[in-house]
Design brief:
Bound molecules: adenosine-5'-triphosphate
Helix content: 40-55%
CATH topology of the largest domain: Rossmann fold
Distance between the termini: 36 Å
Largest sheet: 5 strands, parallel
CATH class of the largest domain: Alpha Beta
Number of domains: 2
CATH superfamily of the largest domain: P-loop containing nucleotide triphosphate hydrolases
Number of strands: 5
Order of helices and strands: HEHEHHHHEEHHHEH
Oligomer: single chain
């Protein structure tokens, strides 16, 4: 079997986290600017519901939440804006420079994100969805690989990552490079993937590959691929 299609999922892994016999959760990850969100939107357009870890991470620290209160009592009121919201820029700069602060922040927020992800997955399961895509940019770094297989990794060469992220965020090459270098090397993520979607070329090629991967996921997980039809050409 090709390395990009290695399959290491067992039903017990999925049950450990989500305890849902009829719904399979697969992980979607990659590097900065490789195209995770683009692929996630495509899966969603095919009918696969999406849980977005970045979105959950924002939700658990919105104004007045226990998550935000815990961060403020741990680090001090400087983490809050005048409006009582999380000062994302200040916190990001602080944890970028202080790895121990990043670890503490993760200890506070990761359990909240995980609990909310379970809740979201259960909501989709109760609607009868056989597949749920969980988009987690730091999936491997957060040691979630064992509970989110099969894992789809979206990859692109470094120069492509840099130019797309710089264009999207209006950021400097140095700033994007620093973010890329703060993560596990993309090659390591690719080597641990069950499926790889190469997003180095035209979007149409990437989306065609994403459809192939979705069909392969259905086959491996025993899900009817007819639930996720490819629209017919006009
Ligand atoms: P991040 O983790 O940094 O949020 P991401 O992996 O979710 O990034 P996207 O936001 O999906 O990446 O893509 C990065 C940028 O590149 C976006 O502006 C997107 O529209 C663009 N893009 C993605 N794929 C392609 C492609 N094949 N051709 C051209 N542009 C692309």
């Amino acid at each position: 079997m090709a390395r990009s299609e290695r399959f290491a999922c067992t039903p017990s892994h999925r049950r450990q986290l989500y305890n849902l016999p009829m719904t399979h959760v697969f992980g979607l990850t990659g590097g900065i600017g490789t195209g995770k969100s683009t692929v996630a939107r495509h899966f969603a357009a095919r009918g696969v519901p999406l849980v977005d870890a970045d979105q959950l991470a924002r939700e658990v620290v919105t104004k007045g939440t226990p998550g935000l209160l815990a961060i403020a009592s741990e680090f001090g009121d400087w983490v809050l804006t005048a409006e009582g919201e999380l000062d994302r820029e200040a916190v990001a700069a602080h944890v970028f420079a202080h790895p121990e602060a990043r670890a503490r922040l993760n200890q506070l927020t990761h359990p909240l994100v995980r609990a909310l992800s379970v809740q979201r997955v259960q909501e989709f399961a109760s609607l009868g969805h056989p597949l749920v895509c969980y988009d987690v940019p730091l999936l491997f770094e957060s040691k979630l690989a064992d509970v989110l297989r099969p894992i789809v990794v979206v990859s692109a060469p470094l120069e492509v990552q840099l130019s797309r992220a710089m264009a999207r965020d209006g950021a400097s090459r140095e700033a994007v490079l620093a973010r890329i270098e703060s993560q596990l090397p993309l090659a390591d993520k690719v080597s641990q993937a069950d499926f790889v979607i190469d997003n180095s070329g035209e979007l149409t090629e990437t989306l065609a590959r994403a459809d192939q991967v979705l069909a392969a996921l259905c086959e491996r997980l025993g899900v009817d691929p007819g639930r996720y039809p490819t629209p017919r050409s006009p």
